[in-house]
Queue: 2 jobs
Job 1
Amino acid sequence: MNELAASYSSAAARPALPMLNVRIAWRNLWRNPRRTWLTASGIAFAIMLVVFAMAMQLGQYELMMDNATSMLSGHLQVQSRDFVETERFEDTLPGATELVRLVESWPSVLSVAPRVEAFALASAGERSFGAMVVGVDIEAESRTVRFLDFIQSGHAPQGPGEAMLGSVLARNLGVGLGDEVVILGTGKKGGMAAMLLEVVGLFTSHQLELDRGVLWTPLASVQEAFGLGDEVHTLAIRTNDLASSADTQRALADHLAQGAPDSPALVRNWDEVMPELHQAIEIDKLGGDLFFYIVEILVLFSVVNTFIMTVFERTREFGMLLSIGTRPWRIVALVQWEALFIWAVGAAIGLGIAALLVFWLAEVGLYMGEQLSEYTAQFYMPERLFPAFSIEAFTNAPLVMLVGTQLAALVSSVRVRRMRPVEAWRAAE
Amino acid sequence: MPLKLLTQLSCRNLFRHKRRNLMLLSAIVVAVAGVVVLNSLLRGFQYDMQEAAVSNLTGHAKVLAPGYLDDPSIEKSFQLAKDWRPDVADDQLEGWAARIRIPAVIMSERETRGVQFVGVDPQRESISFLGSVAHRGEALQSAADRRVVIGESLAEQLDTDVGRRLVLITQGADGLNREAGFRIAGVYDADGENLEKIFVFTGIERLQALVDAEVVTEVSVKLVGNGAGESSIKDSLAAFFDDLDVLDWQELEPQAAAMFLFADAAMFIWFLIMMGALIFGLVNTLITAVMERIKELGMLRAVGMRPGAVVMQVVMESTLIMAVGVVLGILVGWLFILWLGEGIDLSRWAEGVEMAGMRSLLVPRLFMNDLVLVAGLSLFFGFVASLYPAWRAVKIKPLDALRR
C-alpha cells in the first residue's frame, strides 16, 4: 500500500508517467483473482455465444441467398413491367434477341437466360393437369443457374419435342421417361396452342411448386407453338457478385433505358423477385438480435455488480489516495483501465473459443436432422449449416461488451468524485 | 438451528448491501422476464403454425383413400354414408367436413391456371380457413351451391371478378375430362397468397354431379383446442374406415410438425443460455457476500453454529433473492405481454411469414405450465449457483477467521 501511495503522490506531482495507471490497474485486477475470473468468464460467455450464433446465422443467410438465386431465379431478372404485376401471358418483352445482347454487353453481367412461361393443360392418356410450360435455352440456363443439377433421371431437353417434367407432375400424369405428353394452351392471339412432347428428363428440387407444376422444353418451340415472335417473358441474369447485385441492377436499368428506350423492361434485384426470402431473413435477424441483446445485458448487469463491489471494498483505499492529493478523475480512470483489462481477458477467451468452434464447423458443418432439413429446405437451406467468417459477427459482440463494461465501470466509480477523504478513511473494512 | 432464524438472518444479510443486491435482483428480473416474453412469442409462433397447418383444409385427423397423397385424383375417392358422423364426444369435437378435392384447370376469358378444385358444404367449413375469411361478393350458401368462390390473388391473375364466369376442366369418375362453366359468387381474402392461388371452392353436390359420382376424397376432423385427443380420434377413425388411410396433422404437414418440436427444444436452449449468463453474476455476488463475512461466520461457528446451518444460510440467501426475482420477472414479462396486446403485426414481412407457415399477426401465448417450469428451474439454478459459495463458507476455520 505504501508503495502504491508513493507512486500515486509522485505521479500527481509529476504527470509524466503515463503508463503508471495502466500498470496499477492490471495489478489491482489480480488482488481478487476469483472475482476477476468470474466476471471475465461472464463476458467470455456472452461474447462466445453471440459471436458463434451470429456467425452461424449469417452463414445460413449467405447460403440461403446463394442457393435461392442460383437455383432458378438468378441474381437479377428482367421482365415487362406489366408481367411483374399480373403474370399475364401477353405481357412479353419484345425484341428479345437485341435485349439479351444489350444485357450481356454490361460488364458485371456474367450470363443471361431468356425464358417464356405459358400456363397450359398437360395431358397423358386420360389424365390432365395444369402446368407451367417454361421455354428455356438449356445452354444459357446451365451458365446462369443450377436447376439442371436437380435432374433426377434422364437429361435436359435439347431438341424440339423434348420435355423435362417435375417428378410430382410426372407421377400425377402417370408418365415416365420416353412417354408422350400433350400440351394444350391458349396462344398469344387467342388461338389454340398445342405441343406433343416426349419426356426425356425428370426433375426433383423439393420445392413443391416446381416439382408439381413445371415442365421445361426448348425456348424456340414454345415461342412457335404459342404464337410468339422474338419475345420472352423473363431474362434471368447471373452477375459477377451477388453481394453487389443491387448496384448492377441500377446500372443495368440505366443501360437498358438508353439502349432500348421503348422496351417495357423492368430490372429487379433478387430481394424483389423473392420478397419472402428477404423478409424471412429480416424477421429471423430481428428475433436473433433481441436474444443477443438480452444475453449481453444480463452479463453487463454482473459486470456492474463486480464494479460496485470493487469500489465499495476499496472505499478506504480511495479515501487515502484522495487525501494525499490524487485527483478523483485519476481514480475513475484507474477503474476504467481495470474494466478494459477485464473486458480484454474475457474477449480474448470468448473470441478464442468462438473462433475454434467456427473453424471446426466450417470444416464439418452442423447437421440439422432429417425432419428439420425438410422444413428448412423451403428456405433454400442446405442440409448442413456452415458458419460465415464475417467481420460483423466477430466484432459486434466484443464492441457491445466493450462499451458496456466501460459504462458499467463508470456508473460505479463516479461515486469517488463525491467521496470525502476523511469519511472514506473511517469507513469500516 | 430453527429455520425461522436462518430465514431472518438471510433476509437481513441481503438488506445489508442494497445496491449490490438490487443490481443482482434486476439481472434476475431481466433474465426471467426475457425468458417469459421470448417463450410466449415462441409459443405463439408454434401454435400459430400448428393452427395454420390444421386449418389449411387439414384438420387434426383426415381420412383419405389409399394412394390419394401420391395421386390426388377422383379415382382415389370413397363413399360416405349420409348419416355418418365421427365417434367423438360433442364437447371435444369442433367440427368435421367431407370434401372432394381434385386438381383442375381454370380458365377466364384471358388466362389459364392450375388449381385445386374443392367441393365443400359451406356450413361445415367453420373448421378450415374458408369459414373465417372475408369475401367480396357472397360466400357459398350451401352444399348445392352451383357457383364458385376463388382467392383474391387468383382473381387478379385471371383478370376476373365477382359475377363473371369461369371454365373449369377436371377429370370425371369415368376418367374422361369434364368441362363446365361457373359463375363467381365471391372472392375471398385469405391470410396468404398461396392459399388464394391454389384453392377454388364450390358446393360439394355440384362437384359430385360434375364428376358423376356420389363420393368424397377426404373427411377432415377438427377437435376442440389444440387437438390433445388426436391419437384417440385417429384410432377410432381408423377402426371405422378400415380400408382407408387415416392420417393426423403431423403426418399431413410433416414440416410444420418438425418445426413444432424444434420450437420446444429452442425454448429450452434459450432458457439455459439466459440462466448461464445470469449465473456468473450470481456466483460472484454470493462469493463476495461470504468472503466479506469471514470474521462474522467464523464467530458464529465458534459459538456453535453447525456447518450445515452455514450452508443453509448461503443457499437460503441465493434462493430468497432468486424467488423474489422470479416473481417480479414473471410479473414484468406478463405486463410486457399485456402491453403487446392483440399481438405483433408482422404484415411488413407478410410473404416471409407465410413462407414459414405463420400468420401475419403473432399473438404471444402464456401457458401456466411454462411459467411453473421457468420458476422451478430458476430456483434450481439459484440453488446450484449457491453450492460453491456455500462450500467456501463451510471451509472457514473459526480460529483463523477470528484472528484476522
Job 2
Amino acid sequence: MDTPPSKPSWSALVERARAESAPDVDVRAALRQQILSEGAFHRSAPVSPGILDEILALARGLRGRSSIAALTLSVMAFGWLMSDALGEINLLVQLETQLLAGL
Amino acid sequence: MSELPPGEATDLALVQAAQAGDLDAFDQLVMTHQATISAVLFRFSSQRADLEDLVQETFIRAWRGLATWQPDKPFIHWLKRIAVRVGLEFFRKHKRSPMSRLAADGHDHLTALSCESPAPANDEAAQLLSHLPPDQRTILTLLHLDEMPLAEIAGHLGISLANAKIKAFRARRSLKKILSRHGYSSF
C-alpha cells in the first residue's frame, strides 16, 4: 500500500494559505507619533520668516568684504534649510536668489 | 468631483484636509484603508511585528507623498502600489522568510511552522517562494496568495504587462524546481 505524500501540493498549500487572514492591525497611534516627530518635513510645516531675515542680514553684513564668505554662508544656509524644512523649496529658492543678488 | 463614487469622494476630501495638515483627516484615511493594506502586506510577512512595520511604512510614505496622488485614480490603488513597493523592498532586505530565519537559527522547521506562526500555510508557501529572486517572489506572492490580477501587479511594480507575464512564467518555472526539490507536488 502506497504511503500518502507527507507534503501537500502547491495548489492545496496555496488554498489553505488564502484562508488565513491578516490579524487586525491598527497603526494610527504609531503613525501619528511618527508624523508629529518629523512634522518639520511636511510641506505645510511653517518655517519662521525671521529665519530668512536673519540669514539675509548676515549675508548683507558680509557684502563687499568677501564673496567667498557669502557663498559659504549660502551653502551652509542651504544645508540647514534642507535638513530643517525639506519641503520649503520656494523659501530656499528665494533665499538663494537674494543671496546671489546681494553679492 | 460629483461624479466620483461616495468612498472616493470622501477619500479626496480627506486627502485635501490631510494635505492642509489635518492629522485627524489622515487618521480617518488610515482607519478606512489599513485593513486592505494589511491584507496585502500579510502575504509578505505574517509576523505581527514585521506586518505592523510594513503597514506603518506604507502610510508614512503615503503621508509624505500625498501631493503626488492623482485623484483620477482611486486612493486605495495608489496606496496598494506603495504597499507592494514596501513589500518588495522587504523581500530585498530579507532574502529568506521569517520561518527560514528561525530554521537557520536552529529551530526545528516544522515545529516553528506549527507552533510559532499565526499563519502556518501562508508561511510555508512564503518559505518556498523565498528561494526566488525578490521581483519574481513578489509577483507570485501577489498572484497566488493574494489572488491579485497580473495586470494590477504590473501596474503596482511599474512594469509592462508583457514583462510581468515573462517574470511570472520564469518564476513558475523556478518554483516547480523548488517544489520538486522540497518534496512537494507541483501545481
